[in-house]
Amino acid sequence: MSSATSWPAGLRGACRWCPEPVAAPPVFRAEALTKTYRTGEVEVQALRAVDFEATAGEFVVILGPSGSGKSTFLNIIGGLDTPSSGRACFMDQEITKLDDRGLTRYRRDHVGFVFQFYNLMPSLTARENVRLVTEIARRPMKAEEALEMVGLAQRIDHFPAQLSGGEQQRVAIARAIAKNPEVLLCDEPMGALDPATGVKVLEALMRVNEVTGATTLVITHNAAIQDLAHRVVRFGNGAILGVETNARRKAPSEVSW
Amino acid sequence: MAAGVATLVLGVGAVSSLERTRDAFYEANRFADIFANATRAPRSLLERIEDIPGVLDAEGRILRIAILDMPGMAEPGSLLLVSTPSDDGLNRLHLRLGRMPDPNRLNEVVVSQGFAEAHGLVPGDKVRTLMDGRTREITVTGVAISPEFIYALGPGDMMPDPRRFGIAWIPGEGLAAVRDLEGAFDNLIVKLATGASEARVIAEVDALLEPYGGTGATGRKEQISHAFLDAELQQLRGMARVLPPIFLLVSALLVNMTLGRLVALEREQIGLLKALGYGPGAIVRHYVGFVLAIAAFGIAAGWAAGAWMGAGLAGMYARFFDFPFLLFSRSPDTYAIAALVTTAAAVLGAVNAVRTVAWLPPAVAMAPPAPVRYRRFWGGAVEQLLQARQTSVMVVRHLLRWPLRTLGGVFGISLAVAALVGSLWSFGSGERMIDLSFFRMDRQDVSVVFSGLAPMAAIHEVRRLPGVLRAEPLRVADARIGSGHVTRRIAILGLPEGSDLSRLLAADERPMEVPEQGLVLSEALADILGVGIGDQVTLELLKGDRRTLSVPVREISLGYLGLSASGRLETVNRMLGEGSVFTGARIALDPSQEDAFYADVRETPGSGFLTIQSLSLRKFRETLAQNQTIMISVLAVLAGIIAFGVVYNFIRISLSEQGRELASLRVLGFTRSEVAAILYGEIAVVTLLAQPLGWLVGTGFAVAVVRGFGSELYRIPLVIGPEVYARASLIVLGAALASALLVRGRIARLDMIEVLKTRE
């Protein structure tokens, strides 16, 4: 999909410790990621030497209880946070070496985010919220197209205050995918929604994953969702406890929680 | 908050302190209430004057102008010799250096402080003067200030010039001998008892002095030093009335906005309190108490700072006016008003913010507020029109969503612009006054005022003086002009036919010929008398046979300095019935022969007093610049603070409201500058909208100042060029920019991760 040429000059440079690409090159590769927070006198180990890889087009569900480190992990590979030690690579670029400007560029060009609380601009309509991103993206799709993909073609001129929670979250997904990102990072996207609405959001996410081929990482503490993933990664106490691959993926309508 | 309170306390405090100080100084030195001149009145008359009901004390003095002969000073200067007041007399001196002259030594004098400073004179120094062609050397024994000469203005001068004009107090006997006035006086000062009628005493004094060449007594209001000081204080008073209230208003607005937001952020705590069983009344009381505590602190700080700075400012002015002491006044009502307005603003802000939450059920209050409802304005026409990026749309919608706050910001900043426009224009207007007065009306290089009347033939002698290119005779006579019961004492100016050095300008600024009959009144005089072209005015001449005439007003002329009435020289002479005479001349001079001219004039008996236009102009500029620099610096700083404060608060509140959205934008890959641009865009729109409004309001201020200032000493032409608006805007934009940069750090530190975890 993307290549090193999309990186701004000065940030370019091969990630030396990444192995030479094999058949399916990893989109993400993390090695020994550690994150330690210090709150007052207390030191909290949020991540303990996490190794991880994801390949292009993969739909990965990350499971784990609160405080297991899954959000910290997502924030670091999403370029929102930096690790205390260890490295993370996106394609052939070591993102843990980037400065604020480089990380901003990385988020802007390659990452789509979806969060539990939507984080929409209340002053912009659905269409305008999506345009916000397409205006600064390198190769965006049309805002209307993105909204149609999440099933909101009829409500594009509504403000967030006029939309239900599920609709707002789907606007957020449309906003995340409209830039045609290589990766889609979702942190508890159904966390604030009722099950029926959650299903709609999940369907939207899976459809986007299939259509655009964006590597999708979905954080949840809801174990029911694991059946939808190609692969399930379990977090606990700041480390990856296990990884499972689903032989058969279920459709969102087949799961219940 | 403190700043708003401080300015009010400062402004009002400084002005009332100066007024109190002046009054105390007048009182301590027994400054007279009524002033009169005569030719030669016997001292025995003083007893009869003191017998007039309402007169506390009367003193006869002798006044004499001597020409200065200072080494190294080519331009002519003069010294007004005044009889020293007796120990219990009026217009007493406040000795700064040395001692009073010995009454038995006729050559000893005390000189005015300004004059002494300008020439570096100390007790023991000698000064050479020329009187009636005779050189006389006098010895300085002391330096003093007097309530009568706080502003010492030489005859014909518009601004004080202590180098060229000074006062020397000399024992009465010494002067009497010189002027042949033994047992007599030519100047009278009278102190009134409290509550006495000034007008009645003036009428009686005039009647008593008339046989002795009295030229009409005047009250303190027309005493030149007092009038100048009063105009100055008036100007300060004007500033103190207009500016601090603006400042207080803006700070109240900020307090209201800031505390309102502060309380709004406490929404969840309010919910918690409700859950714990507090009623809405208790909650409102709690938050009112909270902002009252903040306000109390701000008010106390403002009081202290205002009192301190007010004392400083008053002290500065007291030195400027040379008051020997300073009485600082504290008026409790100023303090109270400042406190009241501030408190009200704070409490209103808090109540307004709490009100929406305090009556909600606890569970609702604890939950975050529903997303703010926005809407498209005029069917999205604005957005269409702007063809804007979504970030610009956000800016526009956020501003329109809170129209009152946006207007408040616009209003606050526009007041800063207005305060500047309302003062900066005075530069241009001063220049215009100069252009009209010095280059288009009175275009002479020098004017001479003789000490008496000269026959018309003497103008030829003036023309024969070295360097004289052109000389025009001039007749000046004191008169009282009136219409209905309004009267004013003025000098009637007689100008020759075809007068070119001294010209009258019509309203359209074109020079006009002096009409053969009747008078031309200056605009200011016509306004005061309420007369127009064709009306009759009564003219009571205070010279010659003191006849009273009815004279038609033929034209109204432009004029900003003083009140003037002019007529054809022959007409004025005819009115006065003194034959073909003149009292002075306006002269165009060859600059290369200036010194020879001055030297010749100095030696000529009866040549009186010289006014040099270039020096007057320089002095005028200096005085103007001095006044304006102080005032405008104060204003620029105030306006800067206002703009800075409004912008800072506006951005901070906006950041506090939109912090979550802005952090979300950072997550989406917007750079710091792009995010900052949203906040800056808002304040830029507010600041830009404020400019034209500020220009408008400022022009209104200027008009009000012109109307309010129209003192009889001078009028101010209203001239506001584009540079005034530009300068005002630049200063305000600079302050806004500085303020915006200060918030940049906060924008850079927006916590992206925090906003993802919380709902709001």
TrEMBL record, chain A:
<keyword id="KW-1003">Cell membrane</keyword>
<dbReference type="InterPro" id="IPR003439">
    <property type="entry name" value="ABC_transporter-like_ATP-bd"/>
</dbReference>
<keyword id="KW-0997">Cell inner membrane</keyword>
<keyword id="KW-0813">Transport</keyword>
<dbReference type="GO" id="GO:0098796">
    <property type="term" value="C:membrane protein complex"/>
</dbReference>
<dbReference type="Pfam" id="PF00005">
    <property type="entry name" value="ABC_tran"/>
</dbReference>
<dbReference type="GO" id="GO:0016887">
    <property type="term" value="F:ATP hydrolysis activity"/>
</dbReference>
<keyword id="KW-0067">ATP-binding</keyword>
<dbReference type="InterPro" id="IPR017871">
    <property type="entry name" value="ABC_transporter-like_CS"/>
</dbReference>
<protein>
    <submittedName>
        <fullName>ABC transporter ATP-binding protein</fullName>
    </submittedName>
</protein>
<keyword id="KW-0547">Nucleotide-binding</keyword>
<comment type="similarity">
    <text>Belongs to the ABC transporter superfamily. Macrolide exporter (TC 3.A.1.122) family.</text>
</comment>
<dbReference type="GO" id="GO:0005524">
    <property type="term" value="F:ATP binding"/>
</dbReference>
<dbReference type="InterPro" id="IPR017911">
    <property type="entry name" value="MacB-like_ATP-bd"/>
</dbReference>
<feature type="domain" description="ABC transporter">
    <location>
        <begin position="28"/>
        <end position="255"/>
    </location>
</feature>
<dbReference type="InterPro" id="IPR003593">
    <property type="entry name" value="AAA+_ATPase"/>
</dbReference>
<keyword id="KW-0472">Membrane</keyword>
<dbReference type="InterPro" id="IPR027417">
    <property type="entry name" value="P-loop_NTPase"/>
</dbReference>
<dbReference type="GO" id="GO:0022857">
    <property type="term" value="F:transmembrane transporter activity"/>
</dbReference>
Automatic annotation (TrEMBL), chain B:
<comment type="similarity">
    <text>Belongs to the ABC-4 integral membrane protein family. LolC/E subfamily.</text>
</comment>
<dbReference type="GO" id="GO:0098797">
    <property type="term" value="C:plasma membrane protein complex"/>
</dbReference>
<feature type="transmembrane region" description="Helical">
    <location>
        <begin position="724"/>
        <end position="743"/>
    </location>
</feature>
<dbReference type="GO" id="GO:0044874">
    <property type="term" value="P:lipoprotein localization to outer membrane"/>
</dbReference>
<feature type="transmembrane region" description="Helical">
    <location>
        <begin position="407"/>
        <end position="427"/>
    </location>
</feature>
<feature type="transmembrane region" description="Helical">
    <location>
        <begin position="630"/>
        <end position="651"/>
    </location>
</feature>
<dbReference type="Pfam" id="PF02687">
    <property type="entry name" value="FtsX"/>
</dbReference>
<dbReference type="InterPro" id="IPR025857">
    <property type="entry name" value="MacB_PCD"/>
</dbReference>
<keyword id="KW-1133">Transmembrane helix</keyword>
<feature type="domain" description="MacB-like periplasmic core">
    <location>
        <begin position="2"/>
        <end position="207"/>
    </location>
</feature>
<keyword id="KW-0812">Transmembrane</keyword>
<feature type="transmembrane region" description="Helical">
    <location>
        <begin position="286"/>
        <end position="314"/>
    </location>
</feature>
<feature type="domain" description="ABC3 transporter permease C-terminal">
    <location>
        <begin position="634"/>
        <end position="750"/>
    </location>
</feature>
<dbReference type="InterPro" id="IPR051447">
    <property type="entry name" value="Lipoprotein-release_system"/>
</dbReference>
<feature type="domain" description="ABC3 transporter permease C-terminal">
    <location>
        <begin position="246"/>
        <end position="362"/>
    </location>
</feature>
<protein>
    <submittedName>
        <fullName>FtsX-like permease family protein</fullName>
    </submittedName>
</protein>
<keyword id="KW-1003">Cell membrane</keyword>
<keyword id="KW-0472">Membrane</keyword>
<feature type="transmembrane region" description="Helical">
    <location>
        <begin position="242"/>
        <end position="265"/>
    </location>
</feature>
<feature type="transmembrane region" description="Helical">
    <location>
        <begin position="675"/>
        <end position="704"/>
    </location>
</feature>
<dbReference type="InterPro" id="IPR003838">
    <property type="entry name" value="ABC3_permease_C"/>
</dbReference>
<feature type="transmembrane region" description="Helical">
    <location>
        <begin position="334"/>
        <end position="354"/>
    </location>
</feature>
